[in-house]
């Protein structure tokens, strides 16, 4: 008797369907706003950043190339207006996340300036030990690199099936088109990267991390 490994073809599921709209859970917020004062604010920030770069060596984090200032600009008078804008936005974001201001405060973990020249970029990274992170665009020449957010649900990779082009399920990363005056805030655990600067001009931005600290209890 001959053994055969030929099995009958499995019957595909019929393709007639009901129309259904799913609930979406575990959403990831990204807040964006173009700051109305950017035409007057950005020249001041550009000057302050250039003065700082002239006297301060770059530090290295996620940046490949470019200049990265020390992360203490939230204490710097030249960046006080930027700090106030970030504070107001961050409190709004925290409120929408349900942050309990009765039990903890938000503080700046850091704020820093970035200048990415031609070819410079930022590798995918997260910001540990912070609650909210963000970036404000001071000068964005055309084609100088957009920010990309990466799908944080790794379990999605456990199944594979063909997806129609353009379907949401085909999206592994989300790109925000950067422009002068745009402020983005997102959860600090959300992986992000910056595309290489394909222009011949510098791209300048200011980034920040906000962290949570417990409120001090009065002494017993
Ligand atoms: Fe970052």
DSSP, total strands: 11
Helix-strand category: alpha+beta
Low-confidence stretches: none
CATH superfamily: q2cbj1_9rhob like domain
Helix content: 10-25%
Q: Report the top-level CATH class.
A: Mainly Beta
How many separate domains?
1
Strand order of the largest sheet: 1-9-6-11-4-3
Which ions, cofactors or small ligands are bound in this entry? Answer: fe (ii) ion
Main sheet attributes: strand count, strand direction, barrel closure? 6 strands, antiparallel
N-to-C CA distance? 88 Å
What is the chain-wise order of helices and strands?
A: EHEEHEEEEEEEE
Shape: globular
CATH fold naming:
Jelly Rolls
- Rounded to the nearest angstrom, the radius of gyration is 23 Å
* Percent strand: 25-35%
User: Which CATH architecture would you pick?
Assistant: Sandwich
The helix tally amounts to 2
Q: How confident overall, as mean pLDDT?
A: 93
Which short descriptors sum up this protein?
220 residues; Jelly Rolls; six-stranded antiparallel β-sheet; five-stranded antiparallel β-sheet; 11 strands
Describe this structure in words.
With 220 residues, the protein is an alpha+beta fold. The chain has a single domain, classed as Jelly Rolls. Helix content is 16%, strand content 29%. It is built from two helices and eleven strands. The chain has a six-stranded antiparallel β-sheet with strand order 1-9-6-11-4-3. The chain has a five-stranded antiparallel β-sheet with strand order 2-5-10-7-8, with no helix packed on it. The chain is globular. Bound molecules: fe (ii) ion. The site of fe (ii) ion has 6 residues, from loops.
């Amino acid at each position: 008797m001959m053994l055969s490994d030929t099995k009958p073809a499995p019957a595909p599921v019929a393709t007639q369907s009901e129309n259904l709209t799913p609930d979406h859970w575990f959403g990831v917020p990204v807040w964006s706003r173009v700051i109305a004062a950017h035409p007057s604010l950005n020249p001041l920030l550009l000057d302050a950043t250039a003065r700082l770069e002239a006297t301060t060596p770059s530090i290295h984090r996620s940046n490949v190339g470019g200049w990265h200032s020390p992360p203490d600009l939230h204490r710097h008078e030249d960046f006080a207006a930027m700090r106030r804008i970030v504070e107001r936005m961050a409190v709004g974001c925290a409120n929408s996340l349900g942050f309990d201001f009765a039990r903890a405060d938000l503080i700046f973990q850091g704020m820093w300036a970035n200048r990415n020249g031609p070819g410079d970029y930022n590798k995918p990274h997260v910001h540990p030990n912070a609650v909210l992170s963000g970036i404000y665009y001071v000068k964005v020449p055309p084609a100088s690199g957009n920010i990309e957010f990466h799908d944080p649900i790794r379990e999605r990779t456990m199944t594979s099936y063909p997806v129609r082009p353009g379907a949401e399920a085909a999206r592994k990363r989300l790109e925000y088109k950067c422009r002068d005056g745009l402020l983005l805030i997102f959860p600090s655990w959300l992986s992000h990267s910056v595309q290489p600067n394909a222009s011949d001009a510098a791209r300048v931005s200011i980034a920040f991390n906000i962290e949570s600290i417990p409120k001090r209890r009065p002494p017993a």
